[in-house]
Amino acid sequence: MGESGPQPTLRPTGWQTIGVAVVVGAGLGWLLFSVLDLFDLPLPQLPLAVVATTAVLAAFTAIQAWATHRAVQVRHELLEPQRAIRLVVLGKASLLVGAALAGGYAAIAGYSVSRWDAVLPRERVISSAVAVITSAGLAVAGAFLERACRIPPSSDDDATPPRNPDRSDDAS
């Protein structure tokens, strides 16, 4: 009758969600530094390991996005369901965590810029700016990975998914 196949239940991450992640990250970063400053506690310095780890995660996610794009969009291969789920989750998590971190580090840089004349706040602004860039890179790589996992529409009206050349259908 009018029955259609299963509808997709997983939607791409919306800009509103990304915006909320940035705002929450910025709010938490500003709040942390405000509270520490209010109680005259020392403001922490951003360790280089955090920036390096974020950059490595961004590179790993970007490589996964490129490989997934080649497999799904270019060669029209089907991914194993568990692998596809893992990749989508990695993409969404990278996008949202990268956006939240970028917002938080931007707030820290903004908080510290008023004290630019002192050496430690200047270093904090510079290291936070670098962290914003690497965090934004993680978010962009996550967005590309999420997009690479989309199954492209078929070129004709046939709803049959493309065949995976790596799987044998001899078990029928």
What is the fold's blueprint, element by element?
Blueprint: H1 15-38, H2 48-74, H3 81-112, H4 119-148
Summarize the structure.
This protein is mainly alpha-helical and 172 residues long.
List its traits.
0% strand, disordered C terminus, mainly alpha
Shape: elongated
Radius of gyration: 21 Å
Q: What is the number of beta strands? A: 0
As an assembly, this protein is single chain
Our estimate of the beta-strand percent is under 5%
Number of domains: 1
Low-confidence stretches: 168-172
How far from one another are the termini? 28 Å
Mean pLDDT score: 87
For the sheet with most strands, the description reads: none
Helix-strand topology string: HHHH
Helical percentage: 55-70%
Q: Structural class, please?
A: mainly alpha
Please tally the helical runs, counting DSSP H or I stretches of 4 or more residues.
4
Characterization of this structure:
Keywords: Membrane, Transmembrane, Transmembrane helix. The chain has 172 residues and is an all-alpha fold. The protein has one domain. It is built from four helices and no strands. It is elongated, with a radius of gyration of 21 Å.
